[in-house]
């Protein structure tokens, strides 16, 4: 096995993403010693019991001391406070990254807390599940998924390449993007869809005519997917919406306009509008498949290697 990419990695926050990173780094021999810290004693105890991290520390400062790479894997709203907590203990020249679902807020909250000479390279793996906590992670989570890096300082380019190698070693495809664009893209592809799923499940729950057992028994695939997404961690998603406010509101505004137009077409019996709309959206799905950009499609890797 080749030399690890980082001798010492510290994971702050030991939930789905950090635990998946730990198992993926171990699978690939990508890190020497991995230390970990989570705020709750119960989470640290669970981590010790299941062998998550080579060493679980009782403070964030202890976990990051001597680390070459520090990964902030806490809810987006907690990133700034965690950065403040570790700042004085960071090794000069180390890299700090994060995995938060929102980038502009994290950069504004974390960058001012870090000392000169530390490389801050925000990141976001586009991979997850509705599960959370230290026992939810698995080594394959990032396989064939995208990870977006959002470099903020050109002096860190060598360290960006190193972090890219780590994500590639964990199975991901890596792209770089600026923070504002990231937050708009994610508002369209992830944040607004999650809010719609939360709403749809809430509506079903409110409909007293539909009993719980009917909703469960007759769930077609679409609604089943909504219930899975709507089971995601409430703290994490509260923070996503509060910190990616502008982009999410922009997308929801457009969504509402289109929904009203569809609602009107149904009311007035305008089948042409519905047909044209659904024809357009079907072409988008087919375009994604043809471009080899569906990471779930079995031939995604082949399409990517062919340079599509
Ligand atoms: N769950 C998902 O599908 C994805 C999540 N993300 C992002 O990754 C980050 C972590 O998410 P998950 O791993 O899913 O969360 P999780 O809920 O599974 O784990 C979060 C961990 O952070 C700890 N924590 C919370 N506040 C803390 C604090 N102030 N100090 C120290 N530890 C603290 C919790 O105890 C827990 O161990 C979030 O920022 C989220 O936006 C990114 C991609 C996918
Ligand atoms: O479970 C799902 O369907 C997801 O969408 C996972 C996910 C959640 C949040 C992210 O920032 C990235 C990926």
TrEMBL record:
Pathway entry: Amino-acid biosynthesis; L-tyrosine biosynthesis; (4-hydroxyphenyl)pyruvate from prephenate (NAD(+) route): step 1/1
Keyword Oxidoreductase among record annotations: yes
One GO MF term: NAD+ binding
Reaction catalysed by this enzyme: prephenate + NAD(+) = 3-(4-hydroxyphenyl)pyruvate + CO2 + NADH
Coiled coil regions, renumbered to chain: none
EC numbers, comma separated: 1.3.1.12
Keyword terms: Amino-acid biosynthesis, Aromatic amino acid biosynthesis, NAD, Oxidoreductase, Tyrosine biosynthesis
GO biological process entries: tyrosine biosynthetic process
Record field: transmembrane: none
Pfam families assigned: PDH_C, PDH_N
Positions of the Prephenate/arogenate dehydrogenase domain: 7-296
InterPro entries the record matches: 6-PGluconate_DH-like_C_sf (IPR008927), NAD(P)-bd_dom_sf (IPR036291), PDH_C (IPR046825), PDH_N (IPR046826), Preph/Arog_dehydrog (IPR050812), Prephen_DH (IPR003099)
Protein family: Belongs to the prephenate/arogenate dehydrogenase family.
UniProt-recorded name of the protein: prephenate dehydrogenase
Species of the source: Antarcticimicrobium luteum
């Amino acid at each position: 096995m080749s030399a690890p990419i980082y001798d010492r990695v510290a994971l702050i926050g030991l939930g789905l993403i950090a635990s998946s990173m730990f198992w993926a780094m171990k699978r690939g021999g990508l890190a020497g010693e991995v230390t970990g810290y989570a705020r709750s004693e119960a989470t640290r105890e669970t981590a010790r019991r299941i062998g998550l991290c080579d060493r679980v520390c009782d403070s964030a400062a202890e976990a990051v001391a001597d680390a070459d790479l520090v990964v902030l894997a806490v809810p987006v709203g907690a990133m700034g406070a965690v950065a403040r907590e570790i700042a004085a203990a960071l090794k000069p020249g180390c890299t700090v990254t994060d995995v938060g679902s929102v980038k502009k807020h994290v950069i504004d909250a974390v960058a001012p807390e870090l000392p000169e000479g530390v490389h801050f390279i925000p990141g976001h793996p586009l991979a997850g599940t509705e599960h959370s906590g230290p026992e939810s992670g698995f080594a394959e989570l990032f396989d064939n998924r995208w990870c977006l890096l959002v470099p903020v300082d050109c002096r860190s380019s060598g360290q960006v390449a190193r972090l890219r190698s780590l994500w590639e070693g964990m199975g991901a495809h890596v792209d770089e993007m600026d923070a504002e664009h990231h937050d708009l893209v994610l508002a369209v592809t992830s944040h607004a869809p999650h809010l719609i799923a939360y709403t749809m499940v809430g509506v079903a729950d409110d409909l007293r005519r539909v009993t719980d057992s009917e909703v469960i028994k007759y769930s077609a695939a679409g609604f089943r997917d909504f219930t899975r997404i709507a089971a995601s961690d409430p703290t994490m998603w509260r923070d996503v919406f509060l910190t990616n406010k502008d982009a999410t509101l922009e997308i929801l505004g457009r969504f509402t306009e289109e929904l009203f137009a569809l609602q009107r077409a149904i009311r007035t019996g305008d089948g042409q509008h519905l047909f044209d709309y659904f024809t357009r959206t079907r072409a988008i799905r087919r375009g994604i498949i043809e471009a080899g950009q569906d990471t779930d499609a079995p031939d995604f890797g082949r399409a990517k290697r062919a340079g599509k």
